[in-house]
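Hi U.,

Before I forget, here's the chain from the pilot set. I'm dumping it here mostly so it's searchable later in email.
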Amino acid sequence: MSGHSKWSTIKYKKGAKDLQRGKVFAKLARAVEIAARDGGGDPDMNASLYLAVQKAKAASMPNDNIERAIKRGTGDVETTHYDEIWYEGYGAGGVALYVQVLTDNRNRAASEVRSTFTRNNGNLGEPGSVAYLFEQKGYVLAGGTEEDVMLAALDAGAEDVRPSGGQFEVICAAGDLTTVRGALEAAGIPVESAEVTRLPMTTVALKEDAARSVLRLVDALEDLDDVQAVYANFDIPDEVLAAVAG
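Structure:
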């Protein structure tokens, strides 16, 4: 599993995100709004919107909030204009971080991201310094048996199925995510999460001290209101990750 995905899953299971549910809902609503703005307000005709809505529902976001976000995106109600910006940098051990920002104030976002890197033993890089290390993919975390998951996923066009802590990671092209997720669900396979993400093509192995430093940086970045997602290419052994999470 990609470092960021594994860490996010652990935090989700520990309930850490519940402490910031209002902030999480705001970020999910922003993602729904942008998807509706870019591709229209019908989830059946806009795959990005469909996935954003499903992710919001999985986080128990109220339907009224989702509908309002769609209307803001389609221009049915007045809204703030958000720009998408990507920041690139490094954490302890040379770990690459790729940070997605949706903001209505570029200067504020740049200042907050830069200072967060500095305060947490990281360095902001130049545009293009780490982007090439990540590729856009569809990512599904599913339960079930290995045979069932592999059969349903690969038949639907998935590129890879990997065991991970009693579950399975299903990797596919970003454009195939809705189809692959639908095939898994149709086969009765429980899907814990499904998203278009950025997966690292190479990883950096970290020991405990460096792992703690990098995860503090990731958490601090994710806590910024303008930051939508943080992708990282760290590889932390399960026992070390469990120690850090504890």
